[in-house]
Amino acid sequence: QVQLQESGPGLVKPSQTLSLTCSVSGDSIATGLFYWNWIRQPPGKELEWIGYITPSGSTKYSPSLKSRTSISRDTSKNLFTLRLSSVTPEDTAVYYCARVSVLQQAAMMSRPTKMAAGWGQGTQVIVSS
User: Fold this and answer.
1) CA 48/CA 113 separation, integer angstroms
2) How far is CA 54 from CA 36, 38, 106, in A?
């Protein structure tokens, strides 16, 4: 059974870079038919897809966040990382990492839905001075 766990600072100052890590167990991020995603939910709003990294290391980002987003990975530690630069209070959200099958990826990008399995518990990030 795959398990994902987000970690990182809960408070980030405006203009700084938010950095979160997703540690994965029970599956390899470097093989298989799943993409490894970051998704967030601002307070009172719907889930927003941020981006993903594939088993081969390719990445794709939301157009609205692309200029500030970078997703990387460490296959030796089986984890992947989100970096979001120049944050503002509008980046305050619960951030999730998620494993998404290639068949469900398009739907997850257009209308993210939290699934019963393959998601981390989420980590709250507040952007404030």
Assistant:
1) 9
2) 6, 12, 13
Condensed to tens digits (0 to 9), the pLDDT of residues 27-50 reads 999 998 999 999 999 999 999 999
How buried is 46 (Cβ within 10 angstroms: 0-12 exposed, 13-18 middle, 19+ buried)? Answer: exposed
| Continuous H helices in the chain | 105-110
* Tens-digit pLDDT profile for residues 105-124: 999 999 999 887 899 999 99
What are the Cα distances from residue 55, in Å, to 13, 44, 86, 97?
32, 33, 28, 15
Cα–Cα distance, 121 to 119 (Å, whole number): 7
Distances (CA, A) of 127 to 10, 39, 66, 84, 95: 8, 17, 19, 12, 12
Question: pLDDT per residue over 65-101, tens digit each?
Answer: 999 999 999 999 999 999 999 999 999 999 999 999 9
pLDDT at 115: 83
CA 128 to chain centre: 20
User: Do residues 79 and 22 make contact, with C-beta atoms less than 8 angstroms apart?
Assistant: yes
